[in-house]
Amino acid sequence: MLSEKLVDALNEQMKNEFYSAYLYMALSGYFESEDLPGIASWMRIQAMEELTHGEKFFNFICEAGGRTDLRGFDKPENQFASPLSAFEFSIKHEQFVTRSINELMDLAKAEQNHAVQIFLQWFVTEQVEEEASFGLILKKLERIGDDGNGLLRLDDELGQRVFVPPAAG
Ligand code: FEO
Predict the structure, then answer these.
(1) Which CATH number fits the domain that encloses residue 36?
(2) Which domain range does residue 135 map to?
């Protein structure tokens, strides 16, 4: 059983996850335009992961007896000053997502809704991993600085990423 307030908050987080997919597709387009196909591919895979996150919320809302409410969102940022600033922007977005997951968990705790807390646990762990992976790339870009060869090596490395669908649930 979900309160109206929890259904609203779960729908809002579903929007944040689907928006993340849209934003990372925009970032993929930016890296394509910079002739960095490996980083563009990494971002596209990130977008695919975010779609699965949004779908997890969709499925949970339905299973828990709530009503899904797909919401609109603003145009994402499409242009960045540099690869470094694109990743600075991305990690700020992930920090926003972490805060919003934590607020949702606080609400589920306040309402003593155990099912929502257990559902959200996966996302709490996932956000630690997301911030760590974006943070690591950001550090590498800081070290690379103006070294074009270093940037091409990073492009090769990130191009190796493959999409792994998360476990159901
Ligand atoms: Fe699903 Fe990167 O937040």
Answers:
(1) 1.20.1260.10
(2) 4-72+80-158
Ligand 1 pocket by Cβ (under 6 Å): 17, 20, 50, 53, 94, 97, 130
The DSSP 8-state label assigned to residue 81 in this structure reads S
Ligand 1 midpoint to CA 10 (Å): 14
- CA 2 vs. chain centroid, Å, equals 25
Q: Would you give per-residue pLDDT tens digits along the chain (169 residues)?
A: 899 999 999 999 999 999 999 999 999 999 999 999 999 999 999 999 999 999 999 999 999 999 999 999 999 999 999 999 999 999 999 999 999 999 999 999 999 999 999 999 999 999 999 999 999 999 999 999 999 999 999 999 999 999 998 876 5
- The answer to whether 151 and 83 are in contact (CB under 8 A) is yes
For the CA of 50, the nearest atom of ligand 1: 1
Distance 148 CA to ligand 1 centre (A): 29
